[in-house]
Write a structure and sequence with these properties.
The structure is a single chain. With 127 residues, this protein is an all-alpha fold. The protein folds into 2 domains: 63 residues; 48 residues, no CATH class. It is built from 5 helices and no strands. Helix 1 packs antiparallel against helix 2 and helix 1 packs parallel to helix 3. The longest helix has 20 residues. One of its GO terms (cellular component) is mitochondrial inner membrane. It is a peripheral membrane protein. Keywords: Acetylation, Electron transport, Membrane, Mitochondrion, Mitochondrion inner membrane, Phosphoprotein, Respiratory chain, Transport.
Length: 127
Amino acid sequence: MTAAPSAHTLRVCGLYRRALKTTFNWVVDRETFIAEAIDLRKQFEANRHVRSAPLIEKICSDAEADLVKFKHPDPYKLPWQFGSSKYMRFPGDGMGLPKEVCDIPEHLVDQYVELYYLPKVKNLPPA
């Protein structure tokens, strides 16, 4: 059974993940992103063996400040995420729009029947 990761480990892992996501928001080309990700990993590995708590805190705080500074104004979003192109395209988990939205208003029912239903009924072959 393994021990739970420390708060510091979780902080650094989260910082690395956010740094990768920020890099991905700025870099369009996949090859360039991979090169940038390798450089980012080297920066994290360079500080891997630091043991002084105040120095670790300073390094993490500086890295978090850099993330805020380099935050992309329009970050990449997956198509189904909030604010993206497919978000809420099919509300109600694919069940379509609610009945009250799809119902024909009472004042238009007669016009709808005359325009769309009666012509079809008149053109039906005799049974």
